Amino acid sequence: MAWRMTQLLLLALVAAAWGAQSGTPQARTDLLNVCMNAKHHKTKPGPEDKLHDQCSPWKKNACCSVNTSQEAHKDISYLYRFNWDHCGKMEPACKRHFIQDTCLYECSPNLGPWIQEVNQSWRKERVLNVPLCKEDCQIWWEDCRTSYTCKTNWHKGWNWTSGYNQCPVRAACHRFDFYFPTPAALCNEIWSHSFKVSNYGRGSGRCIQMWFDPAQGNPNEGVAKFYAETTNSGAMPQGIGPLLLNLTQILQRWFLG
Ligand SMILES: *[C@@H]1O[C@H](CO)[C@@H](O)[C@H](O)[C@H]1NC(C)=O
Ligand SMILES: *[C@@H]1O[C@H](CO)[C@@H](O)[C@H](O)[C@H]1NC(C)=O
Ligand SMILES: *[C@@H]1O[C@H](CO)[C@@H](O)[C@H](O)[C@H]1NC(C)=O
Ligand SMILES: *[C@@H]1O[C@H](CO)[C@@H](O)[C@H](O)[C@H]1NC(C)=O
């Protein structure tokens, strides 16, 4: 009787191991539908019916609160006290891209495959090399060419003595295309490689869209799933093999001994 049960259990375990190895690649579910552990993110994504203006595409499922979505549209907001107008007024056509970038960063539950741990006072996790769709980067760069800035990396090196970022004394204001000669220079360098502009375009399912029409659903869900599968397939089957072997030994001893 005991032997029969062990046989059945072994059969079940072998079937499970076989399924794990031969089935379609499993997306690491811990990379999907998650919020990073950062300054203003919710702990888990969920619906937010009242998300403000440019952040509203994420209202069905978001990592940002309504308050964060409102603050994302303000100058020197309570979020980061960041001053977009550090070299005179940023053109509104340019600023809307920075607002959209803030909405993506704060609200998106689809950045899991690019989340990295960091040792920073204001956040425990960041994103690195998010594959931004090439058109989203191109249009951002074109709309900002004629605005002014004084730095290439906007994460570091500001003078914060007044409570918001100002250009340090030796950093001169120039047009964006002086500090960012190409779209890739802008998208990759500005936030220390949070983005890595993709060769893929909008609608490809292979790059993250900063702008999307929510009526068609959130295209970034599928993109995250794709990268969660491709970057981590194989990890599970390799890890589960020795564990199952061990488990069968334990079960055999338990039933027979
Ligand atoms: C968001 O919350 C912060 C902190 O509680 C508050 O200072 C700020 O005024 C709020 N913003 C809005 C738009 O309600
Ligand atoms: C983070 O940095 C602090 C101070 O630099 C250090 O004490 C701490 O051990 C670091 N933590 C990790 C996880 O690297
Ligand atoms: C920082 O800004 C303050 C004024 O806001 C100025 O007095 C100071 O010299 C600046 N420091 C540097 C290093 O740029
Ligand atoms: C098997 O399980 C035992 C504890 O029951 C553990 O000490 C051992 O490291 C395990 N071996 C493997 C290969 O997982």
From TrEMBL:
What is the taxonomic lineage of the source species?
Eukaryota, Metazoa, Chordata, Craniata, Vertebrata
UniProt keyword annotation of Disulfide bond present: yes
BP-aspect Gene Ontology terms = cell adhesion; fusion of sperm to egg plasma membrane involved in single fertilization; sperm-egg recognition
Record's InterPro entries? Folate_rcpt (IPR004269), Folate_rcpt-like (IPR018143)
An example Pfam family from this entry, by short name, is: Folate_rec
Q: What name has this protein been given in UniProt?
A: Folate receptor-like domain-containing protein
**Source organism per UniProt:** Eschrichtius robustus
Signal peptide from the UniProt entry = 1-19
* Taxonomic superkingdom: Eukaryota
